[in-house]
């Protein structure tokens, strides 16, 4: 099984210098005991949403949602929430709804929809800026997505122009919706990862390539327009700004894997299918290596044991925008599964202010040239896109070096500096 060797070496050194208690106190796993407490989302404060409750990581307390809401699905850093409200309690008809500044608001239906004839709008995501809400909808037998603008209160159904079924699972601040679109393949339908832009255009990922297997999707998108999902049983990251599609290996011992969520700083989580209806959570970031790892192994390397019944973490469904909280649920029927949440602190990203001040870098943001200075000799420097693609590397035998970013597109990059056996990772913005 793959080990995070550089990270482990750095942590061992840190434990020698500062003691294990301080290191382990920063990383924590909490597994809930309440049946049906599976998580749907989490924000930067460790504020999570299950199906019927809110959750605070610090206090480890579940609190029931408001009485005018029925279920919750997604939360952002403003603690604005997307979910469901009751439309007709006697007929048990639900409608999409959202909580804005503590007040729940109904979304309702379009004039063409008839909720009494099984037309529905199923909520999945709210954008970080609270402007957009998205999900799946139907009008009769036509299934697609929906996009609701909380500022204009406009609700539109986003149906595939070719008349096939589609769905939307997430939306970012730019109004880009991600999910899937069906395409006939001669033996039924074929779900193809797709995103929709505000001009109404659908785009397939990867462009010009149809999958072989019939279940594929984009599960999430961040506000840097980086998307994650699964394509032909493999997890992938797609960076729209550079049009870079990166497919990753299925972890050892698994038959398939998918990415479900990406933070604003490029930490990705998901799950691997390790048996029949048995999953184990995975995590990816360039600072951990070039392939996804089992989250339980990352925790074990840091002295945190997974205390679930089967020793697995099941499904990682969401990561907070800052990349510090991961939420999901254990194996078992999802409606009854117990939830869990992990606090990673700065484990994955390492440091934006480099630990022990051994390395400094400037300017950030960078336009052309970035300078790196270290107390020890710099051996090598690698630069990666937020999707994990290495764009260039340089070798050095000095305590300072320069990186030329002038040929790179604007966006977020990760710079990995190897110096005297230690590895530091820094987030850099190219303007």
From TrEMBL:
<dbReference type="Pfam" id="PF18962">
    <property type="entry name" value="Por_Secre_tail"/>
</dbReference>
<feature type="signal peptide">
    <location>
        <begin position="1"/>
        <end position="25"/>
    </location>
</feature>
<dbReference type="InterPro" id="IPR026444">
    <property type="entry name" value="Secre_tail"/>
</dbReference>
<keyword id="KW-0732">Signal</keyword>
<protein>
    <submittedName>
        <fullName>T9SS type A sorting domain-containing protein</fullName>
    </submittedName>
</protein>
<feature type="domain" description="Secretion system C-terminal sorting">
    <location>
        <begin position="362"/>
        <end position="428"/>
    </location>
</feature>
């Amino acid at each position: 099984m793959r080990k995070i060797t550089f990270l482990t070496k750095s942590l061992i050194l840190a434990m020698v210098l500062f003691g294990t208690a301080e290191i382990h106190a920063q990383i924590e796993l909490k597994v809930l005991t309440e049946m049906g407490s599976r998580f749907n989302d989490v924000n930067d404060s460790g504020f999570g949403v299950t199906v019927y409750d809110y959750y605070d990581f610090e206090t480890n307390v579940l609190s029931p949602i408001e009485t005018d809401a029925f279920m919750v699905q997604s939360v952002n850093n403003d603690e604005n929430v997307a979910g469901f409200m009751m439309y007709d309690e006697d007929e048990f008809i639900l409608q999409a709804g959202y909580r804005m500044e503590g007040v729940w608001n109904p979304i309702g239906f379009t004039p063409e929809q008839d909720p009494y004839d099984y037309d529905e709008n199923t909520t999945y995501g709210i954008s970080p800026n609270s402007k957009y809400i998205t999900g799946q909808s139907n009008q009769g037998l036509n299934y697609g997505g929906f996009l609701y603008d909380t500022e204009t209160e406009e609700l539109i159904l986003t149906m595939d122009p070719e008349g096939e079924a589609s769905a939307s699972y997430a939306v970012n601040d730019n109004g880009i919706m991600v999910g899937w679109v069906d395409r006939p393949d001669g033996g039924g339908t074929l779900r193809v990862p797709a995103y929709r832009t505000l001009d109404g255009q659908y785009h397939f990922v990867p462009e010009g390539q149809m999958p072989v297997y019939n279940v594929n999707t984009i599960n999430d998108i961040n506000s840097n327009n980086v998307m994650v999902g699964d394509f032909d049983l493999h997890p992938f990251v797609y960076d729209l700004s550079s049009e870079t599609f990166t497919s990753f290996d299925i972890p050892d011992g698994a038959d398939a894997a998918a990415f479900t969520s990406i933070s604003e700083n490029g930490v990705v989580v998901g799950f691997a299918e390790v048996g029949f209806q048995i999953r184990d959570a995975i995590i990816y970031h360039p600072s951990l290596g070039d392939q996804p790892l089992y989250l339980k192994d990352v925790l074990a390397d840091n002295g945190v044991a997974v205390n679930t019944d089967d020793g697995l973490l099941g499904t990682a469904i969401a990561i907070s925008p800052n990349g510090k909280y991961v939420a999901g649920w254990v194996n078992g029927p999802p409606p009854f599964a117990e939830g869990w949440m992990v606090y990673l602190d700065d484990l994955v990203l390492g440091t934006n202010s480099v630990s022990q001040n051994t390395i400094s870098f400037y300017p950030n943001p960078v336009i052309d040239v970035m300078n790196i200075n270290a107390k020890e000799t710099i051996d090598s420097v690698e630069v990666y896109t937020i999707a994990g693609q290495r764009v260039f590397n340089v070798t050095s035998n000095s305590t300072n070096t320069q990186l030329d970013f002038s040929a790179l597109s604007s966006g977020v990059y990760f710079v990995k500096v190897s110096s005297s056996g230690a590895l530091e990772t820094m987030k850099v913005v190219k303007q």
